[in-house]
Amino acid sequence: MLSKRIIPCLDVREGKTTKGVRFEDNVDIGDPVEMARFYYEGGADELVFYDITASHEKRGIMIDVVRRVAETIFIPFSVGGGIGSVEDMRQALLAGAEKVSVNSAAVRDPRIISQGARIFGNQCIVLGMDAKKVEKTRKTPSGYEIVIDGGRVYTGLDALQWAQKAQELGAGEICLNSIDADGTQDGYELQLTEMISTRVDIPVIASGGAGVPAHLLQALTQGKADAVLIASMVHLGTYSIAEIKSFLSAGGVKVRSSW
């Protein structure tokens, strides 16, 4: 059985790590390079870097920050936000990222998934999904709709159908974020996580809502996720990665050593 991964997420705005609730009321909390080093040394399995305003502002990702983070850590590192073309992917990978995450751009032109997978390999392409609970309709039979541009634009896309489509196009992994749970620290959206995780054949990272280690245990067991994204609970110093892994291990979840 593969070990479950613990992945701190660095949402970056104007060069600073920031954190909000349901994509609103963001507060700057630190330097992404220093925080990346701290989590790497603390036993993180991977890191995720999101330039959270790049797509809305219609600009490229901050490559200089990506490069500085990549020079600091020696674990897999995924970047997203502002990745709108194969050339953007190439620049991020050349700057030191192991994976690139596409979200809004993939909704607008799904070919970016297949093009990226063909050129760089499926393992490099992560589909970022921001999903919100809605009424079940013929258009959104799962009851979850994809929202893009940092939670600003509703697409009409059904979350489950989009996840399955992205897998067909060549995505190697899905980072599934619940807008309703994001930043609340009340727990992951387990129904959404389990639905996607059990209906695609690629790894799914649960994102949005982690507040205590028990929430991670639920996402990895009940939600069937392959990995969990965390932010507030470590950014605020409430828990260390070592403490989280110790709790998960005691709960029967296979995790990698924290050094």
Strand order of the largest sheet: 1-4-5-6-7-10-11-12
Oligomer: single chain
Roughly how many Å apart are the termini?
Answer: 20 Å
Largest sheet: 8 strands, parallel, barrel
Your description of this structure?
With 259 residues, this protein is of the alpha/beta class. The protein has one domain: Aldolase class I (TIM Barrel). Helices cover 32% and strands 27% of the residues. Strands 1-4-5-6-7-10-11-12 form an 8-stranded parallel β-barrel, surrounded by 6 helices.
Provide key terms for this protein.
single chain; 259 residues; alpha/beta; TIM Barrel; 8-stranded parallel barrel; 10 helices; 32% helix; globular
Layout of secondary structure:
Elements: E1 5-13, E2 16-21, E3 24-30, H1 32-41, E4 47-51, H2 63-70, E5 77-80, H3 86-94, E6 99-102, H4 104-108, H5 111-120, E7 125-133, E8 144-148, E9 153-158, H6 159-169, E10 173-178, H7 190-197, E11 204-207, H8 213-221, E12 227-230, H9 232-235, H10 241-250
Helix pairs in contact: 8-10
Task: Explain briefly what this protein structure is.
The chain is α/β, with parallel strands linked by helices and 259 residues long.
